[in-house]
């Protein structure tokens, strides 16, 4: 085991060294925020640094990434504001020049004349006029006119709302806030359309695709995409060979075990205290699905819900915020509750005050969920000033929407959880038996979950967008997709070991090896989220290379499904655990399809350049977040409930839940989300990104029909949720009463 521990330590050290190095490059090479934006001919000051930074806070307060997107990060109904601004500015200038030189609109010109004006436009837009000495950006008079035209348009849009963007009336009414918001939108578009010093691509590596100004795919994106695909194929071959070789003749199954090793298991008081979590988690799941139905309906009806103008009370930005946030809350709560439930099994004893910590965390969970949701509603409706909004309202960043106060409170709770579960694991390690190595990797994952959440606290209220995105993805990717993944792998290995399905040696080796494989690509692979977020080219090079490696272990999930199925058929007593194993099997399937296939669909820079922030992203988000982490959380719930009672279950609820969830998720993706994403991709490729996000496309008859067709999958999925929640609540109540 020394060799595998050395490999694990080396991966952690080298991967974080590379990730932090790219972080320092982001700090040093991020797009500059100028002290002033001035008109070249007159010296007039258009915007100041304070206008831009305050405008970012205004944008956060109205929901930020939950209302459209910036640099491709955010929601899908409203436009990407940076891409939309660039296109509108370009069209305005081209039309002005066309009228002046040819007395026609730009679209009426010949191809030759259009190309002449485009070359002229690129000289104006892409030339970097930032002066590092004076810290000023200069703009021409024609560009000033285009900017003012945009400012008038966006001021009216955010004041009056737009049904096709699911924007309620009165998003912003304060004139100074509207001006500051425009200053921020200008800066994001400037960074995405102006070349870096001494380079022939923008601060966002020429994202978004906008042919009018010459924003096209860079050579670096193409080169590193090709390299990542070659590396993917190479390592799939190596890992498949290794997997088949090591599994050949392996006797991981304990054939002598003919009875359930856990049949005499009795709950201790702290485990009984955990059971109430599952009732609240079921309610959160149900609420999340209801909010999801409302949110997706806004994409077809704009402001209403089957004729009722719901946006007056719950606008799209609020329902989408709650929908995504509740997903993180209930999935994380499920995994944390599983850790608390299994802790006494790990240590073999009931520890003092453990039950008090469980009850405290339960109350804290309710306070954080309800408090953050209320704060987000108040923040979006402009009841807070900007600083108060940052701490108690809406931070404006997808998956990290909750105010900083609630975020800190959640972090404190995670530290407490880490201490509570960690001391049980340490006690188990001190026994120095054969499970020592398995428990060490479990302790590492528990500590990582407790500590890496604080990466989301590194940035502040006035941090720049590239810096915020860097640390945000430390939280969303590393915390959830990295160390929770390791935690889940170790927990499943531990469970199979306790059930004597596999030996402790096999469990330990599998858990540590899996952690090495996941983290070797997963840590540096964090960078694939920020290719075009004002980051230097190193993010593309390393992100593309190592995110390809993330897919490698997922290609072997078919073997995992086969092995799980063989385990299920081995003995009659194992069938008692049929449904937890079924849910773990579905996790393997969605890991392969949702995280693997659909994940790699958007991972290479050459692909993400055209489809970032389109419905192809939603395909990956739903199949990976729910299909993998949601299904895994549900499997953990069922397993803990199975251990809580010896009674024979009436399985019809679980059967309906399992197949409803899987068939419904597949249907909503295949029938609706994926076809819409493909249509948007083709439009982005042929016409430009702004067209792919425009209401003209999203409200076209074909796309509208595809949106409505999603109701088929949604209904089937909702039936699955209903039966799962019904089963969980009923069985939890029975378990509480029987214990």
TrEMBL record:
It comes from the Bacteria. InterPro entries: Cyt_c_oxase-like_su1_sf, Cyt_C_Oxase_1, NorB_cytochrome_c-like. Residues 36-209 form the Nitric oxide reductase subunit B cytochrome c-like domain. The keyword tRNA processing does not apply. The chain crosses the membrane at residues 222-244, 277-300, 327-346, 358-384, 404-426, 438-459, 471-497, 509-531, 537-559, 579-602, 622-645, 657-682, 708-729. It holds the Pfam family COX1. The keyword Metal-binding does not apply. SUPFAM superfamilies: Cytochrome c oxidase subunit I-like (SSF81442). Keywords: Membrane, Transmembrane, Transmembrane helix. This is Nitric-oxide reductase large subunit.
């Amino acid at each position: 085991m020394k060799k595998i521990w050395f490999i694990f330590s080396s991966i952690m050290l080298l991967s974080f060294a590379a990730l932090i190095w790219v972080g320092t490059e982001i700090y040093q090479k991020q797009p500059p925020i100028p002290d002033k934006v001035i008109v070249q001919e007159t010296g007039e000051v258009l915007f100041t640094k304070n206008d831009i930074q305050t405008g970012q806070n205004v944008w956060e307060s109205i929901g930020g990434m939950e209302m459209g997107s910036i640099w491709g990060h955010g929601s899908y109904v409203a436009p990407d504001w940076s891409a939309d601004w660039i296109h509108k500015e370009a069209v305005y200038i081209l039309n002005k020049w066309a009228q002046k030189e040819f007395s026609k609109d730009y679209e009426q010109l010949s191809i030759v004349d259009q190309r002449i004006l485009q070359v002229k436009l690129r000289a104006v837009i892409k030339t970097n006029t930032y002066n590092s000495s004076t810290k000023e950006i200069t703009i021409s008079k024609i560009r000033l006119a285009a900017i003012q035209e945009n400012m008038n348009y966006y001021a009216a849009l955010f004041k009056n709302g737009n049904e096709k963007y699911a924007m309620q009336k009165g998003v912003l009414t304060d004139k100074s806030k509207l001006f500051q918001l425009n200053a921020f939108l200008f800066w994001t578009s400037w960074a995405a359309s102006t070349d870096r010093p001494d380079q022939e691509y923008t601060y966002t590596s020429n994202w978004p695709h906008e042919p009018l100004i010459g924003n096209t795919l860079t050579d670096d994106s193409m080169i590193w995409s090709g390299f990542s695909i070659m590396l993917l194929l190479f390592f799939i071959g190596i890992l498949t060979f290794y997997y088949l070789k090591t599994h050949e003749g392996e006797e991981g199954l304990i054939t002598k075990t003919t009875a359930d090793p856990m049949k005499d298991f009795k709950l201790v008081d702290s485990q009984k205290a955990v059971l109430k979590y599952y009732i609240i988690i079921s309610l959160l799941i149900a609420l999340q699905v209801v909010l999801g139905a409302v949110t997706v309906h806004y994409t077809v009806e704009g402001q209403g819900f089957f004729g009722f103008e719901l946006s007056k009370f719950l606008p799209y930005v609020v329902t989408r915020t709650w929908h995504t946030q509740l997903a993180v809350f209930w999935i994380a709560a499920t995994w944390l509750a599983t850790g608390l439930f299994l802790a006494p099994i790990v240590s073999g004893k009931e520890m003092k005050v453990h039950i008090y910590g469980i009850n405290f965390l339960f109350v804290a969970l309710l306070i954080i969920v309800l408090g953050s949701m209320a704060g987000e509603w108040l923040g979006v409706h402009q009841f807070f000033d900007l600083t108060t909004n940052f701490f108690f309202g809406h931070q404006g960043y997808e998956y990290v929407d909750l105010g900083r106060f609630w975020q800190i409170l959640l972090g404190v709770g995670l530290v407490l959880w880490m201490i509570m579960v960690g001391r049980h694991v340490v006690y188990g390690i001190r026994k120095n038996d054969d499970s020592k190595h398995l428990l060490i990797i479990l302790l590492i994952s528990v500590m990582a979950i407790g500590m890496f959440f604080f990466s989301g606290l590194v940035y502040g209220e006035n941090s720049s967008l590239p810096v915020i995105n860097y640390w945000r993805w430390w939280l969303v990717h590393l915390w959830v997709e990295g160390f929770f993944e390791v935690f889940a792998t170790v927990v499943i290995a531990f469970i199979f070991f306790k059930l004597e399905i596999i030996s402790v040696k096999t469990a330990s080796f599998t858990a540590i090896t899996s952690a090495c494989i996941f983290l070797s690509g997963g840590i540096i692979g964090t960078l694939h989220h920020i290719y075009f977020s004002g980051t230097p080219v190193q993010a593309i090079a390393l992100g593309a290379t190592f995110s390809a490696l993330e897919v490698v272990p997922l290609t072997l999930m078919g073997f995992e499904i086969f092995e799980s199925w063989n385990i299920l058929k081995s003995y009659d007593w194992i069938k008692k655990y049929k449904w937890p194993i079924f849910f773990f099997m579905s996790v393997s399937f969605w890991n392969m399809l949702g995280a693997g296939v659909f994940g790699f669909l958007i991972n290479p820079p050459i692909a993400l350049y055209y489809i970032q922030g389109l419905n192809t992203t939603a395909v990956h988000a739903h199949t990976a977040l729910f299909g993998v982490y949601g299904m895994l959380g549900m499997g953990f719930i069922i397993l803990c409930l199975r251990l809580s009672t010896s009674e024979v279950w009436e399985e019809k609820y679980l059967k309906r839940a399992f197949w409803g969830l899987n068939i419904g998720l597949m249907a909503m993706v295949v029938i609706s989300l994926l076809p819409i994403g493909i249509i948007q991709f083709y439009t982005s490729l042929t016409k430009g990104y702004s067209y792919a996000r425009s209401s003209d496309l999203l409200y076209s008859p074909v796309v509208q029909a595809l949106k409505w067709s999603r109701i088929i999958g949604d209904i089937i999925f909702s039936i699955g949720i209903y039966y799962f929640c019904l089963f969980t609540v009923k069985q939890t109540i029975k378990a509480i009463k029987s214990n």
